[in-house]
Prior knowledge:
Helix content: 25-40%
Number of strands: 19
Largest sheet: 6 strands, antiparallel, barrel
Distance between the termini: 9 Å
Structural class: alpha+beta
Number of helices: 14
Shape: elongated
Amino acid sequence: xxKTAAVIGAGPxxxxxxxxxxxxxxxxxxYDRMPSVGRKFLMAGRGGLNLTHSERLDIFLxxxxxxxxxLGPMLEAFPPLALIDWANTLGAHAFTxxxxxIFPEAMxxxxxxxxxLDRLAxxxxxxxxxxxxxxxxxxxxxxxxxxxxVIETHGVTVLALGGASWPRxxxxxxxxMLLQEKGVEIAPLSPANMGFNVAWSELFRxxxxxxxxxxxxxxxxxxxARGDAMxxxxxxxxxxVYALSSVLREALAAAxxxxxxxxxxxxxxQQQIESRLARPQGKASRANYLRKAVGLSPxxxxxxxxxxxxxxxxxxxxxxxxxHQPLARAISIAGGISFDALDDTLMLKAIPDTYAIGEMxxxxxxxxxxxxxxxxxxxVYCARAILARMAA
Length: 392
């Protein structure tokens, strides 16, 4: 096999595949439809680049739900500790936050990306930007460029085209049609880690959109998630909401609206709350009484009023969800290339010498480091398999 590779998509998965392949002696050319690389990676780092998580690997694997068994060998081949070591070789100085999440010391993606691109340049990886992949033609890969269409040929092709969330950053999901035409089975793309719609009153929306509910517990159909939630103009979002996004999305497909329950005081028992509320109100205003008795903030007190929930039920505030934000506004996706369409090396069974990695595959996970970790792990696993095949 010719030791050349096209890696299409210059996000985290594509860049990692290019690094491993080029380090193994493969001449790698990277293609991307955008004028610069790693745009979604840089966006992810604006709020603190969460690379991975420090929890035990068995717990970590369970975060991927139905896909955990298929992703398991890949995550074990390049686990969180390996990702931390890799990031440190680029000067990231990774550390573990109080939540168990792993971050680079700089808390953003740009320094790591600059060091990474320097490494790829030293390994002679070539970049072809503003090259929009349009499928195959004349025995090669067809790209649309500002100068017109070009055909490129390589020994292997690695597709790392991402999902379809935040398409302005590069990944628009157009690859689904190209692969389906070749007989590749693809589960429909759906939003994951997205916000949900709630019909707030205009008064509540105008006063509290953009404010957080801190350290709450969310409950839905036997599932729970603890963390922060953000009130938005359209409804509710945030880490705790994202952790339940898959079950909420599936429930909305069967019924509308659905009730999401918010426990505003997960560290207090119902008995403790009732005991505190049994204290005399005296001359204090209602708001001051609730603030002193159970620590209710203005947004929490108004959420009770908005939902018609009495103070003694603040562990079970029902918020009715009517829909979710679209794919273009989601952090990540569900759906993608079925694992049954891939062999054990992530090569597409219908298209020899063509591999797929990262968000293109049919898996989803909550935020917290799981998204990037799976992108990196599938890339390393696939690239190592390609090198082994080339060496055989």
